[in-house]
Sequence to fold (421 residues):
Amino acid sequence: MPTTDPARRVVATGLGAVTPIGNTAEAYWQGLISGVSGVGPITLFDPVGLDVRIAAEVKDFDPTIAMDRKMARRMSRFIHLAMAAATEAVNNSGIDFASYTPEQLDRVAVVINTGGGGLEQVLEGTRVLAEKGPGQVSPFAIPALSGSMSACQISMKYGTTGPVITQVAACASGVISFIDGWRLIQSGEADVCIVGGTEGALVPIAFAALGNMGALSRRNDDPTHASRPFDRDRDGFVFGEGSAVVVLESAEHAMARGANILCELLGGGMTADAFHISAPEPTGRGATGAMTKAMRISGIAPDEVDYIVAHGTSTPLNDVTETRAIKAAFGAHAYKVAISSPKSMVGHMLGAAGSVSGLAAICSIRDGIIPPTANLQNPDPECDLDYVPNAKRVKRVDTAIINGFGFGGQNAVAVFRRFEI
Fold:
């Protein structure tokens, strides 16, 4: 059951984001509730020869907003994105780490997860090795490609000396960052935890592999309508990039410094399908278990949930399976709860997908607005729940959950609630 001890209750106090529909948390949220699509033709590289030539790219992004130019040249895009989102989140929280004592910094943790890390560094290093020889390969290639380095760079930026964690859990990574942050504060190991996900893996080999897998939408001539979760005519997900970061604190720590508390993180649950490297278990048993476990750990009943931020990838298998899982976990309430998928606008950001879902949940509680599922024109008969099609809904949200279901059968769900003393 959830604790009533303010030292162990976990609250959100700061938001940051860099996404295909906005390079701040507020820009992302406004784009989301307005139904803006961030999908378009690939510009980060020449996609000639690829079957899939569309993506949800971050636009007009300058990494030097969060680091100096020299550091930016040495780091990968996924680190750039995470550093920018973390800088915004910390500023938004009002925390001044420069004023913290060494003992206080020992109690600040960082959990930034990813799916792919610095893939472009692997490709560039391989090219240099082949063309110029081993002596010309950058000594910074390893720290630039390491999946853990975004979390480490954030820790170094602020001088935090508590736990620094990175979990690579495919599309569940972002949700797991919330669960790990919640556990660190609940256990008493940390008072503050900077959590989130980041992904900057839009490279040709990824599009070729995912395209050959049949996972990606091929609506090259109609990119803004390519991502269409729960729609009968969906044909795959749109690959995206970006980062979202949230500052979590114990309620005691947040209230002591007069922080603006956005909501409470009640807990989360994780399961495994143990079924297939890419396909979900058809009955949705693992996803159902993750939702059921998350609600049990959080001490809430299914009919208390007002909004589900769906995994909602726009793939034929995922959307039907998630619908089945929601029905199994929520019973009759499945037909009453509002459900929507940010991926309809920002694409599938893999390791960052769960973190942008977290922002959607937090802002829905803050503002009383549920963002839509865009492009839902022809509902799939097997997807017959309330997916808030095409237009935002003004409605009080007290409790929201976020779903993240990853390749390999990794399932994670986190629960957010309006904070009340």
